[in-house]
């Protein structure tokens, strides 16, 4: 028997503009299921609806039509107070620009979601220490964001996103501000968390290299899901398949193939 999907979206639409003359479908008739333990990438050209889709899944925006269930709960029927509680307990977010609080240490930034839940200090301490160890940032626990590297900031953000053990980790271009070394390191960590801890990850990305770490890519065009691609072989083969599909959709491919990432594959082959 299959477990409850972590995401079940049925006939979802998001319309911007109130009058019929200026109505615009940012998402149109989107249906999509994600099983627990999957690592899925959302790709598409600029303006295709990726962020809108992530925002409605993450409860930050309301859909116009359709339903979204996360871990078996229909979030489209929830009131705003219930939604913020649900978001705090079930979802974790990693953004391109880290969104850490500058006046809190690494430890305090990670502990923030737990202190908002009024968790006892001793329990909080053990959870924060566990996730810092997992992400390799225990030694910088007392440093402030301005004192650490971009890669360490993103690891801190990932630790904060995971400390409350959410049902779903959402990423919006999580490697977008990182150099190759730090991007690879974060992607390897995400892969490990997905494979070893079965954390379900949904990530929007422009670049095919980051996407090649996923098990499946969902392509979006003009607000509609147009294709899915499953990884069956090596990551390098998957990367090329992703670029081929993006090539079919035009504009997105130009920004998806990165010379730096191409170089990294060349290095791996040596
Ligand atoms: N608040 C809004 N009001 C009106 N139109 C909007 C609004 N937000 C987004 N849109 C439009 O909806 C479409 C989808 O936007 P969205 O930000 O989801 O695209 P995206 O694929 O994430 O793009 P990018 O890769 O450039 O971030 C775009 O045409 C955008 O202009």
How would you characterize the overall build of this protein?
- With 270 residues, this protein is α/β, with parallel strands linked by helices.
- The protein has one domain (38-46, 79-269): P-loop containing nucleotide triphosphate hydrolases (Rossmann fold), CATH 3.40.50.
- It has helices spanning 50-57, 80-90, 106-116, 121-134, 150-162, 180-197, 208-211, 235-248, 252-256, 259-269, and strands at residues 7-16, 24-34, 39-43, 65-70, 73-74, 91-95, 168-172, 201-204, 216-221, 224-230.
- The protein has a six-stranded mixed beta sheet with strand order 6-7-8-3-9-10, sandwiched between helices. Strands 2-1-4-5 form a four-stranded antiparallel beta sheet, with helices on one face.
- A hairpin with a 2-residue loop joins strand 4 and strand 5.
- Helix 3 (106-116) packs parallel to helix 5 (150-162).
- The model has no long low-confidence stretch (mean pLDDT 90).
- The chain binds adenosine-5'-triphosphate.
- Adenosine-5'-triphosphate binds next to strand 2 and helix 1.
- Keywords: ATP-binding, Nucleotide-binding, Transport.
- One of its GO terms (molecular function) is ATP hydrolysis activity.
- InterPro entries: AAA+_ATPase (IPR003593), ABC_transporter-like_ATP-bd (IPR003439), ABC_transpr_LolD-like (IPR015854), MacB-like_ATP-bd (IPR017911), P-loop_NTPase (IPR027417).
- This is Putative ABC transport system ATP-binding protein.
